[in-house]
Automatic annotation (TrEMBL):
<dbReference type="GO" id="GO:0030976">
    <property type="term" value="F:thiamine pyrophosphate binding"/>
</dbReference>
<dbReference type="InterPro" id="IPR011766">
    <property type="entry name" value="TPP_enzyme_TPP-bd"/>
</dbReference>
<feature type="domain" description="Thiamine pyrophosphate enzyme TPP-binding">
    <location>
        <begin position="388"/>
        <end position="540"/>
    </location>
</feature>
<dbReference type="GO" id="GO:0003984">
    <property type="term" value="F:acetolactate synthase activity"/>
</dbReference>
<dbReference type="Pfam" id="PF02775">
    <property type="entry name" value="TPP_enzyme_C"/>
</dbReference>
<protein>
    <submittedName>
        <fullName>Tartronate-semialdehyde synthase</fullName>
    </submittedName>
</protein>
<dbReference type="InterPro" id="IPR012001">
    <property type="entry name" value="Thiamin_PyroP_enz_TPP-bd_dom"/>
</dbReference>
<dbReference type="Pfam" id="PF02776">
    <property type="entry name" value="TPP_enzyme_N"/>
</dbReference>
<dbReference type="GO" id="GO:0050660">
    <property type="term" value="F:flavin adenine dinucleotide binding"/>
</dbReference>
<feature type="domain" description="Thiamine pyrophosphate enzyme central">
    <location>
        <begin position="191"/>
        <end position="327"/>
    </location>
</feature>
<dbReference type="GO" id="GO:0000287">
    <property type="term" value="F:magnesium ion binding"/>
</dbReference>
<dbReference type="InterPro" id="IPR012000">
    <property type="entry name" value="Thiamin_PyroP_enz_cen_dom"/>
</dbReference>
<dbReference type="InterPro" id="IPR029035">
    <property type="entry name" value="DHS-like_NAD/FAD-binding_dom"/>
</dbReference>
<comment type="similarity">
    <text>Belongs to the TPP enzyme family.</text>
</comment>
<dbReference type="GO" id="GO:0009028">
    <property type="term" value="F:tartronate-semialdehyde synthase activity"/>
</dbReference>
<dbReference type="InterPro" id="IPR029061">
    <property type="entry name" value="THDP-binding"/>
</dbReference>
<keyword id="KW-0786">Thiamine pyrophosphate</keyword>
């Protein structure tokens, strides 16, 4: 074998693993890695903050399904990455963060920008490791990719002392390749029992979580649902796993990101087949209400996830794709495809009669109207990126999604500022796709410096800002305390003129204050982004008192009286 600089071997590993873009900031302690990177086929995007770099790598990973990569130097670069690592860990996103480090012999002497980033990162990674010898370099990176992809995917951190980076190793890329990743297959007898339960139920639903999208199992999901004629709900992380205009789509249940009719359908179900879902508390609410009157089958690739929140009636350990494929195969072996029955018709009636209004003409603008215009203007293949707050809740309730990996949201960690850098990653992965960021005014301000990155590299996308001039979700949470404290953000009292801020970055922006101007503004933004190759902002001023419809549990549905004509019909087959 040929002896090469060990960082050249590392970069060769990145190329062979399918990495075409990395996000990062160079610094003294990571320069040997950068020296090797400059001679590769990999594009480097210089971000303005390492947290922004992790979110960009996260967005790239979510939309491609591959392992995203972020790079930084020693000390604060690594600590700045912790939020991004936590976000990826919480949402099962495969990502590798690479940090530079001080010379090995100085690590115990409080050297400049030397911090034990491995110990800091361990709680928010699948694996955190420091390279000790140059000869380990290509093999540690190979294992990092395998770990990031395996089982429940997640992030890895690799720390590179600068003296180790300067070393050499024996490496021949012709003799190396990505390590195989185990695909956990279910036991046939467990799948058979699951089919027994599904076919015996009178009102079953399938609950598709983010694991269905991660596993690329949407076709298998659709095949099973259509064969058995079982309605399908999605979690927030599962949006896009099942097309929302499909006759079997049964909405979303939950206490925040939900539909009224989805809650009603869930509460009337008698069996739930949950695939790749964690039963997060924002979905379940009160577990007594959530579980009462129905049985549960829980499918997950991670064995310790089953029973973590509550004990299901049947646990199935396996990768979502082979599990759904085996469920469909065994269902086909038992009989021909079914026809829509009374239960499917009831779900359809719930959808028809219990949908929330979104056609308001009020001034100030009501948030549902914003999503009505978004749904009508942008095509099915558009990729939407959103983060956390009232606008995420409104998005989950009103925004329609049809395809996998087209609705990206930081669901569990919920870091403000995630969406702008994540959109950078999405657009770098698929330059030809329309990318739309749905953002709140406060979240935009967290990492708005990454707008400069998009402007520098001519990375276009549309930003739709829903601005109520409040910390809206906190203000709504304060209401039971009869307080309205420290949440005002309007102009003249600490607020930012976002149109002028965008213009300072050299990017177009427009403010909308009446609903009749929304359609024209969105059309203008799409055209400007394409023409100028820049991010473009449409700031929508919505009513300051707007709240999201949510409650302490699924019993929130009780505020809406069910229609008598639905109650009087026996919908059981």
């Amino acid at each position: 074998m040929k002896r090469v600089p060990c960082m050249e071997a590392v970069v060769a590993v990145l190329e062979s693993e399918g990495v075409d873009t990395v996000f990062g900031i160079p610094g003294a302690a990571i320069l040997p890695f950068y020296a090797a990177l400059q001679h590769s086929s990999i594009r480097h995007i210089t971000v303005r903050h390492e947290e922004g770099g992790t979110h960009a790598a996260d967005g790239w990973s979510r939309v491609t399904g591959n392992v995203g990569v972020c790079v930084g130097t020693s000390g604060p670069a690594g600590t700045n990455m912790i939020t991004g690592l936590y976000t990826a860990m919480a949402d099962s996103i495969p990502m590798i963060c690479v940090t530079g480090q001080a010379v090995t012999t100085k690590l115990h002497q409080e050297a400049f920008q030397a911090v034990d980033i491995v110990e800091i990162a361990k709680p928010v990674t699948k694996w955190a490791v420091q390279l000790k010898e140059p000869a380990q370099a290509p093999w540690v990176f190979r294992e990092a990719f395998r770990v990031a992809r395996s089982g429940r995917p997640g992030p890895v951190l690799i720390d590179l002392p600068i003296d180790v980076q300067r070393g050499t190793c024996l490496y021949d890329p012709e003799l190396d390749a990505p390590l195989p990743v185990e695909v956990r297959r279910p036991l046939p007898q467990v799948v058979s029992r699951a089919v027994d339960l599904l076919t015996a139920a009178k009102r079953p639903i399938i609950l598709a979580g983010g694991g269905v999208i991660i596993a690329e199992a949407t076709e298998e999901l659709r095949e099973l649902a259509e064969h058995l004629q079982v309605p399908v709900q999605v979690t927030l992380m599962g949006k896009g796993a099942f097309p929302e205009d499909h006759p079997l789509f049964a909405g979303m249940a939950g206490i925040q990101t939900q539909t009224r009719w989805g809650n009603a359908a869930f509460l009337d179900s008698d069996l739930v087949l949950a695939v790749g879902a964690r039963f997060g508390d924002r979905h379940t609410g009160d577990l007594d209400v959530y579980r009462r009157g129905r049985r549960f089958i829980h499918v997950d690739v991670e064995p310790t996830q089953i029973g973590r929140v509550f004990e299901p009636d049947l646990g199935v350990v396996g990768h979502a794709k082979p599990v759904l494929a085996e469920l469909a195969r065994q269902a086909r072996d038992r009989g021909p495809a079914g026809a829509p029955g009374k239960w499917v018709r009831k779900v359809g009636e719930l959808r028809r009669t219990m949908a929330r209004r979104d056609d308001f003409d009020d001034v100030p603008i009501k948030p549902p109207r914003v999503f009505k215009e978004i749904n009508e203007h942008f095509g099915r293949d558009t990729t939407f990126v959103t983060a956390i707050g009232l606008y995420q809740i409104w998005s989950g309730q009103f925004q329609t999604t049809y395809l996998p990996r087209r609705y990206l949201v930081c669901g569990q960690a919920g870091p403000l500022g995630w969406e702008i850098p994540a959109a950078l990653g999405v657009k770098c992965a698929y330059p030809e796709r329309d990318v739309v960021v749905v953002v709140g005014d406060y979240s935009f301000q967290f990492l708005m410096e990454e707008i400069a990155v998009a402007a520098q590299y001519r990375i276009p996308f549309v930003i739709v800002m829903i601005n109520n001039e409040y910390l809206g979700l906190i203000r709504q949470a304060e209401l039971p305390y009869e307080m309205n404290f420290a949440v005002d953000l309007h102009y003249g009292e600490g607020g930012i003129d976002h149109v002028k801020a965008m213009e300072a970055f050299g990017c177009p922006a427009r403010r909308v204050e009446v609903p009749g101007d929304l359609a024209d503004a969105l059309a203008w933004a799409s055209a400007e982004a394409e023409r100028e190759r820049l991010p473009v902002l449409v700031e929508v001023m919505v009513e300051r008192e707007a709240n999201a419809a949510m409650g302490p549990s699924l019993e929130a549905i009780k505020e809406f009286e069910p229609l008598p004509e639905l109650i009087s019909v026996d919908w059981s087959d």
